[in-house]
Amino acid sequence: MRTFTVAILLCLVAACSADKVPAPSPGPTFTPERFRAHVAFLADDLLEGRDTGSRGHEIAARYVASQFDSYGLQPGGTGGWFQQVPFQKTTRGADKGSITVTGPNGAKRYQHGDNALIGISARETKVDLAAPLVFAGYGIEDERLGIDDYQGLDVKDCVVVVLRGYPKGLPTEEGAHISATKGKVAQKHGALGVIVIATLQFEKVFPWEKMLEYSNDPDFDWVEADGKAHSEAPLLRAGGSLNAPAAETLFAGAERSFADVRAEADKDKGAPRGFPLKTTVRIQGEGAWERVTSPNVIAILPGSDPALSKEYIVLSAHLDHLGIKDVPNSKPGDDRIYNGAMDNGTGIATLLEVARAAAEATDKPKRSMIFLATTAEEKGLLGADYYAHNPTVPIAQIVGNVDLDMPLLTYEFTDVVAFGSNHSNIAKFVEQAVAPMDVKLMADPMPEQGIFTRSDHYQFVRQGVPAVFLMTGYGNGGEKAWGEFQGEYYHSPKDDMSQKFDWRAGAKFAEANYRITRAMADSKTPPLWYSGDYFGDVFAPEAARAER
Ligand SMILES: [Zn+2]
Fold first, then answer.
1. How much of the chain is in helix, strand and coil states, percent to nearest 5?
2. 282 to 64, 204, 245, 483: CA distances (angstroms)
3. φ, ψ for residue 398 (rounded to 5)?
4. 458 CA distance to ligand 1 centroid (A)?
5. Which segments within 44-105 are labelled E, that is strand?
6. How far is the C-alpha of 172 from the C-alpha of 175, rounded, in Å?
7. What average pLDDT score do residues 76-87 get?
8. From residue 430, how far is each of 86, 344, 355, 362 by CA, in Å?
9. Does residue 405 contact residue 469 with C-beta atoms inside 8 Å?
């Protein structure tokens, strides 16, 4: 009788949990000490800020590979643990470049770093381009959103002038995405160059002086098999931006003034229509090229299920940071090492701890898992983009990605944010996986930032893979902690080990991510885009869908 009752009870328990995400078997443990050890190594001054292509980054890459090795994972690179990414580093030449505007009021020449910022070409060492100008509104074309800024405009062999950003009131993530496609759209219409001018709203958030801070950083692009720098719009020969006083001269003698156009753009849904300008432009500049190689570090844990193991869940985090350089407005002797303890030492520590736990688990994950430590995230999500274009397993077999970038671990978080959670059902995996830890999934607290398009996972999204970027949330003091971090420590030499870390929160975040990635690896169906979702429709039109 007794035995029978126990059997029924067991049965009920099993039936109960079958509806939920399968709980990982007891086994893997997560300790604050282990988490701290990873961050302390990566954020040491001797690693010199882990800049792409630097010795410090190479040492960090060896550390990650050596950890992967010690966990018993398989190398997942192109030769061992590494996928070497070839980059072209483009540095501004002695002639920093200029934009000359000629119109009814004569000619005006604007120098780079003054009233103009000029992009250095990665495809021509010396650029000298003269062309008529056409204003093309925001320079956006998107059928799904019903926007066609080029309608009725002939911009062939012209330089187009476009407003930065996207019309007020557009969904922010879609807006951020289409903003990043302006070059491609201009190229499609036959333009030779793009000049970007700021809206009133953008100027408030990002004043011109702030833009100038980055004006002399070199550019990085990954290199295609044909030896050329990868570009989304290779036929565009020149580009740049002008500040407001200089932008005004572009509109001299035109049917509407710059002020008029900007006032319209400042209204809700305001989207000024384009028109030909009465001015012409000459854009000049020169640059020098150099080859740099820097690795992505990749490990694979083969799945245990014969069928599901053909599918891969990718957990990614960037290993690079900003290196050693002068801080704007610094004094001699000030700290110049950007240690990047939080950006992204804590993300890599989480990735390593999840990799270790998954490898140690007595019940192995059903799907295969890829652990990807990317390079050149700070240069524009380049290591991840290279991987997504040159995956070491077929991209169609990668069914989901969770990216970790800068989890803030200075407080005991009680919720997490999954940027991108309204696009695919990964959010459901996250929500259910962290519930037993008394951790909640909170909605995007900063939708205006368009974070979904701003870290490595977005490169997987662009290849059609459902992805989220996972971060610690605003509860239990999180909002205040985030405010302080953003204001004082983000992208500063102060992001080092002297911050007030809560290493228990590190262990907890590692466990949360272990549960999340396990849920994705063990579920019967893989993560799916929601039906009707913009990003799913754009990048994975053929893929199966989930209902909301
Ligand atoms: Zn960063």
1. 35, 25, 40
2. 48, 29, 18, 43
3. -90, 115
4. 15
5. 74-75, 82-92, 98-103
6. 5
7. 97
8. 35, 21, 18, 22
9. yes
CA dist 460 and 315 (Å) reads 11
CA of 378 to the centre of ligand 1 (A): 6
A 10 A CB-CB count for 455 gives 25
Distance (Å) from CA 255 to ligand 1 centroid = 43
What does the alpha-carbon distance between residue 303 and residue 310 come to, in Å, rounded to a whole number? 8
* pLDDT at residue 10 greater than cutoff 70: no
Q: For the chain, what is the mean pLDDT?
A: 93
Does residue 404 carry a pLDDT above 60?
A: yes
348 Cα to the center of ligand 1, angstroms: 13
Helix axes 32-42, 503-522, angle to 10 degrees: 100
pLDDT for res 13: 37
Centre of ligand 1 from the C-alpha of residue 343, in Å: 5
> What single DSSP character describes residue 341?
I
**Cβ atoms of 518 and 308 closer than 8 Å:** no
CA of 342 to the centre of ligand 1 (A): 9
Counting every residue written for the chain, the total comes to: 548
Sign of CA dihedral 41, 45, 51, 56: negative
- What whole-number distance in Å separates Cα of residue 9 and Cα of residue 322? 56
pLDDT at 26: 57
267 token code pair:
């209204």
Q: How confident is the model at residue 421 (pLDDT cuts 50, 70, 90)?
A: confident
SS3 449: helix
Contact 110, 242 (CB under 8 A): yes
Interval between CA 452 and ligand 1 midpoint (Å): 14
- Main-chain phi, psi angles of 33, to 5 degrees: -65, -45
- Burial of residue 37 (number of CB atoms within 10 Å: 0-12, 13-18, 19+): middle
Q: Is the peptide bond before 344 cis (omega within 30 degrees of 0)?
A: yes
Give the rounded percent of residues in the chain with a pLDDT score beyond 90: 87
CA–centroid distance, 81 to ligand 1, in Å, is: 24
Residue burial 354-365, b: 16+ Cβ < 10 Å; e: rest: bbbbbbebeebb
Which residue is associated with the tokens 């995400």?
21
Whole-angstrom distance, CA of residue 72 vs CA of residue 289? 40
Report the sign of the C-alpha dihedral through residues 444, 459, 545, 440, in that order: negative
Decide if pLDDT at 267 tops 50: yes
Q: In this structure, which residues have their CB less than 5 angstroms from ion ligand 1?
A: 343
CA nearest to 77, candidates 381, 393, 463, 461: 393
Query: What pLDDT shows up at residue 8?
Result: 36
